Amino acid sequence: MICAATLSDLSVLELAEPRPRGGTRREAAPARPSPEPAPPPAPDPSPLLQIRGVTLEYRTPQRVVRATHRIDLDIHSGDRFVLLGPSGCGKSTLLKAAAGFITPVEGAITLAGAPVHAPGPDRIVVFQEFDQLPPWKTVVQNVAFPLRAAKALGRREAQERARHYIDKVGLTPFADSYPHQLSGGMKQRVAIARALAMQPRVLMMDEPFAALDALTRRRMQEELLALWDEARFTLLFVTHSIEEALVVGNRVALLSPHPGRVRAEFNSHAFDISSIGSEAFQGAVQRLHARLFETGAPAEANR
Predict the structure, then answer these.
(1) How far apart are CA 189 and CA 169, in angstroms?
(2) Where are the beta strands (DSSP E) in 106-243?
């Protein structure tokens, strides 16, 4: 006997084994194998930000200066990619080109396959200067202003998102303060909150902690990594500090002295703030220092 059920229920009912009544016992039909779960979608292997054969130049009153020479780099979604090199190697110029402020004289830069020709809200830059905040606006007004200027959100929504990211960088008690009432580190937190509030495809930071004292700099590195752990944004970061490159980045590109060429590329995902002082960390610092300043070294990638 089958318990009472609708026709649609029969496909999912467990049938009770019938008792034999002198006749041959009927074998139950074999159960259909359950379908295999669909495999998760494979991650997109294509780079988010691609730099191909990029040469950058700028003019002085005396001559044309070549800042970088035929740079090739791939930055993938979620990378913390660091450009490391000595002063004058073109790392900041390269970042500005990726942001759309400078046009290459050779090569191309693409974001998600689309050519980069101008600045846009999908690439936000945080500079090292403390005076990048309009002094007549409060902290919350500074963070909300780009959202309103880009017409991304209405006034109320922009204020809500601004306060959300102000809280993320620990400045809620200073949301209504003006820039002149903040320390240098606090101003940089505002700049980071303002950039993250735009939710860019790539956050670009040009030596953002270079002018801070050592203790504040370490604190800002910790806070940046904590924000990345939560949001997993794509980061393009410029520094001339080997230690900072290893701590902040999971990939590090070494640029040679002027004009900048890619000398090598290293994976640094094994290191973080807690690695500083360890034998492995100090060994990595020494290897990068030797590779960075050796003469006549050909470009290569170490993965």
Answers:
(1) 6
(2) 106-111, 114-115, 123-126, 202-206, 234-239
Helices 184-197 and 139-149 cross at an angle (nearest 10°) of 30
Helices (H), 37-80: none
Angle of CA points 69, 72, 76, to nearest 5°: 145
Q: Are 145 and 134 in contact (CB under 8 A)?
A: yes
In sequence order, what E strands does the chain have? Answer: 49-59, 64-75, 80-84, 106-111, 114-115, 123-126, 202-206, 234-239, 251-255, 262-267
Per-residue pLDDT tens digits for 190-219: 999 999 999 999 999 999 988 888 888 898
CB within 8 Å of 261: residues ≥ 6 apart: 68, 69, 70, 71, 255, 299
At the fourth CATH level, which superfamily is domain 45-122+202-303?
P-loop containing nucleotide triphosphate hydrolases (3.40.50.300)
Q: Is the pLDDT confidence value at 125 over 70? A: yes
Quote the pTM value: 0.80
Task: Determine the Cα–Cα distance for residues 69 and 57; give it in Å rounded to an integer.
Answer: 9
Q: What is the rounded average pLDDT of the residues 271-300?
A: 81
Helix 214-231 to helix 184-197 angle (10° resolution) is 20
Q: Which 8-state DSSP code applies to residue 120?
A: B
Residue 17 has pLDDT above 50, yes or no: no
Q: In the chain, where are the structural domains located?
A: 45-122+202-303, 131-199
Collect all residues with Cβ–Cβ distance below 8 Å to 246 and sequence separation of at least 6.
252, 268, 271, 275, 281, 284, 285, 288
DSSP 234-298: EEEEEES-HHHHHHH-SEEEEEPSSSB-EEEEEE-TT--GGGTTSHHHHHHHHHHHHHHH-TTPP
Q: Is residue 299 left, alpha or beta, with left meaning phi > 0 and alpha meaning psi from -120 to 50?
A: beta
